[in-house]
């Protein structure tokens, strides 16, 4: 069957973002397609979180065109699920897991008016999808980092988004919990055909699942398959200093970057 041509979920054309005199992104152009799983990598301060905020309509570029699902970004867009890097789970550790998930309904148009049985049904479905039903009523202060992360993903899924933006969901997780979250995000991406931008500092847990990698450094970006982007030549060009990519035991190591 011929594949229907779809409009990209994300289109960036010649984007420039500056804070004062500092340029964070310079002439960035890229497309992300429906159902694509993209890992976003780059050193601290490269602009990874800033890029997500651009897509969320939280900041405007100094130059260029942004389209999300064919339209300019706007705040409170139900078509985007977002789990921020700096989250406020510590605000009230006595909140139950299901309440945290339910926050995903509060920021959008129809959430606050929902009857409670409908609201609960949506929350239960999301808890089930991220395999969190067992601790649905536990206070979040008692949950592990991996369990809390699953709740944040459930929260981001509540409005049935077409684009999922996850800012460092693997931070502070050990390898087995990293793998658990990666498997969950992969399942969500494939079963819902939702596009995913997942910010991470380590590509290794994502190697088996990502479609493409977006690497940001020095205001510039490289996008392509892992084999195209995570190479000594591409990263040396991007960083402007010698970078060596070493492959061993099915893992990749980037040496010389982030120093
Ligand atoms: N609102 C703002 N005003 C001024 N500077 C900002 C603002 N937001 C971000 N920056 C700066 O822009 C740069 C990119 O920030 P950003 O948070 O996007 O980096 P990042 O790639 O997500 O880094 P990390 O890996 O540490 O999370 C940083 O130097 C940051 O200090
Ligand atoms: Mg960040």
Q: Mind explaining what this structure looks like?
A:
There is one protein chain. Helix 2 crosses helix 3 and helix 2 packs parallel to helix 4. The chain has 259 residues and is an alpha/beta fold. The N and C termini lie far apart (49 Å). The protein has a domain of 70 residues. The protein is globular and about 55 Å long. The protein has seven helices and eleven strands. The strands form three sheets. Strands 5-6-7-3-8-9 form a six-stranded mixed β-sheet, sandwiched between helices. Strands 2-1-4 form a three-stranded antiparallel β-sheet, with helices on one face. Bound molecules: adenosine-5'-triphosphate (ATP) and magnesium ion. Adenosine-5'-triphosphate binds next to helix 1.
